[in-house]
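Handoff note, outgoing to incoming analyst
You'll be picking up this chain. Sequence as last confirmed:
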Amino acid sequence: MELRQFNYQGIEAFKALIEEEREKVEPRKPALVTEPFFSEVDAIANDPEMIVPVPGGEEIDPKIQFKDRFHMGDYLSQVLPSDLSIVQHSNVGLWAWISAIYLRQLLEPQMSGGRSKLWSSYRYIPVEYQKFRYYRHLAFMAFWLRRAFGEEVAMFFLSRPAYAHSDAIEQLYTQDRDFLSSKGLMKAAVEMYIDPKTGEMKRNALGKATPGSARRLATKIAKQLQMNYDLQSMGKDEIYALLPSEFDGWRSSISTK
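Most recent structure output, in case you need it:
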């Protein structure tokens, strides 16, 4: 379908549907929604009185199934306009509409009962910039990491189900981004910390006290190396050669296939 965005009426209607369900549960618990809820969301996402065309937009496939958040970000980075003024987080109508058309994939299905977990609205509808909110918008951050930082960074942060917030974003992206500028470093990080079989981050990869963890690499080791080396010009193998022995266990776990 043609790329659209909610107008003010559409944003408020989508927000009202979410808040109605959220009011049924305690703030720290998910609301459990079923197909009738999704059908209501579909209705407003396709209501000509609640949507408008996106300037410079082409087409988007509302039925595409994403393997994980990385593939969602990869797809959105390809189909959304190149004009940054249109795709910013502050464009509430665009990102609320994108969340609406993919909402079934942005909610974790419950193990049984045919219900899905609906969390706070800021995961689906952007709000005015707040330190602890903007990066939790599932669709926007998937797109932004892929568009702004490239494949390696996106794989590192987005190797999660489409509905899952990333602990790596929470702990590293929001704290320190200096290490993101080195493609070689990020390629090494993906190899060491992302399980190629599951596509998810390995156990203890973000451990604060874990030797050779991703947190150690990003917040300590990379900073030390940057004092003496131009990490941005170095390849993955050159980065590996500089890493201290605490990373040996992570390097030995890399698949040779």
